[in-house]
Amino acid sequence: MNQTATSLLIGLCLTIPAVSQSQGIFGGIIKNDEKKLDAEALTNQEGAANAKLQKAQSQEVSGKTRQARDGYKAIVKSYRQTDAAAEAQYRYAKILEAEGDPKKAFEQYQELLTRHRNTPNFNQAISSQFQIADRLSESDKKGFLGLGAAVQPSKLVEMFEQIAGNAPYTEFAPKSLLKIGYVHSKHGENDKAIASFKQIVDTYSGSEYATEAQYQIFKLRGENAEMSQSPNKDREQVEAGLDFVNQNPEDQRAREVQANLQSIEARSMEKLFTTGQFYEKSGKPDSARVYYREVVKNPNTQWAAKAQARLHVLDQEPTAAPATVEKKAGFFGGNPLKKDKVKMRAGEDDVVPLPASDG
User: Fold this and answer.
1) Bridge partners (DSSP) listed for residue 142
2) What string of H, E and C letters represents the secondary structure of the chain?
3) Can you give the pLDDT at residue 71?
4) What was the pLDDT predicted at 150?
5) Are the CB atoms for 283 and 314 separated by under 8 Å?
6) Each residue's pLDDT tens digit, 265-274
7) Cα 210 from Cα 199, distance rounded (Å)
8) What's residue 347's pLDDT?
9) Mean pLDDT (whole number) for 311-319
């Protein structure tokens, strides 16, 4: 992990919930209420556990994997507080992973990390957990009877959250948050994905992870905007794009984002023009004027000329209060591409009629 990323990892413990030592993944429970052994008893158990550990390791080396697996499992069950149990737990998890039982292997790694925080296999266990969760998130394997996913999205999110909580000061924390965002976006939960990506931007500002998160926010804002008739959603994508370009000018994607900003403006103006047409056809010319006038303020798109043409037609008709219509048009706020800092009015996703003096 590079120095920049390392310096930015401090503080995640304030944003990632602590992992409970009594709760495991997939509903598994880690028992940690056994009585602590005194020094003599622990020494005796270490001796017995080490003897069994050596036997299981020999079996594994000689290819007797099943016997070795059962031996490691027995050590973990009978000698929980020993150092030998920590090594056995790690070896047991590795065998489960190799045998194609990733979910159970993840649980065993989790128990190791919960019970034995000082294990020399800590980094390897965290890395294995991340690889397991990553593979499961990318897998197209189906669940029971071929229905659904092998692992539900909520469980994948839980796994990555647990990894981040296990190692808040390593690169696996922001990487896991990125994966959480990807899982949510893959399943159409854009708002949850954006929230996860924003957490990375806030916690790891200036890192490669924050750059990727900002780009994903820009893309997801675009998906939201394309499914909405509200120009507010376009504004959100424009602002996300400007944030990305301004904070990551050297990123190779900055030019792509910059090029997209004008097309976003055109999309927003099309929505406003279409809404104006709706009100005009509904017999509300004053409301239509509000939207047409807003489009005309942005002459860089084809919709400006069309809106001007409609205004010319409407201007031939009487209006009760033209000054009021002009004033209401300002409710939309300024165009961020023109560096206007006036904010657009907040509102629901649907574009609703603005008050107008239509008869």
Assistant:
1) 149
2) CCHHHHHCCCCHHHCCCCCCCCCCHHHCCCCCCCCCCCHHHHHHHHHHHHHHHHHHHHHHHCCCHHHHHHHHHHHHHHCCCCHHHHHHHHHHHHHHHHCCCHHHHHHHHHHHHHHCCCCCCHHHHHHHHHHHHHHHHHCCCECHHHCCECCCHHHHHHHHHHHHHHCCCCCHHHHHHHHHHHHHHHCCCHHHHHHHHHHHHHHCCCCHHHHHHHHHHHHHHHHHHHCCCCHHHHHHHHHHHHHHHHHCCCCCCHHHHHHHHHHHHHHHHHHHHHHHHHHHHCCCHHHHHHHHHHHHCCCCCHHHHHHHHHHHHHHCCCCCCHHHHHHHHHHHCCCHHHCCCCCCCCCCCCCCCCCCCCC
3) 97
4) 64
5) no
6) 888 899 999 9
7) 9
8) 44
9) 83
Going by C-beta distance under 8 Å and a sequence separation of 6 or more, which residues neighbour residue 247? 211, 214
Where do we find the tokens 């165009």? 335
Distant-in-sequence, close-in-space partners of 217: CB < 8 Å, separation ≥ 6: 194, 197, 198, 201, 240, 243, 244
pLDDT tens, position by position, 230-247: 888 988 999 999 999 999
- Nearby residues of 350 by Cβ (< 8 Å), 6 or more positions away: 229, 230
Ordered structural domains, the chain, with CATH:
20-120 (1.25.40.10)
For residues 20 and 185, the answer to whether their CB atoms sit within 8 Å is no
Q: What angle (nearest 5°) sits at the alpha carbon of residue 80, between those of residues 126 and 89?
A: 35
* pLDDT above 60 (res 352): no
Residue type for 320, please? Answer: A
Q: What is the mean pLDDT of residues 26-33?
A: 42
Burial class (CB in 10 A: 0-12, 13-18, 19+), 62: exposed
User: Any idea which residue has 């750059």 for tokens?
Assistant: 211
What distance in Å separates the CA atoms of residue 275 and residue 350, rounded to the nearest whole number?
11
What is the average pLDDT across 179-196? Answer: 96
State the Cα–Cα distance between residues 264 and 231, nearest whole angstrom: 10
pLDDT grade for 146, boundaries at 50, 70 and 90 = very low
Question: pLDDT at residue 327 above 80?
Answer: no
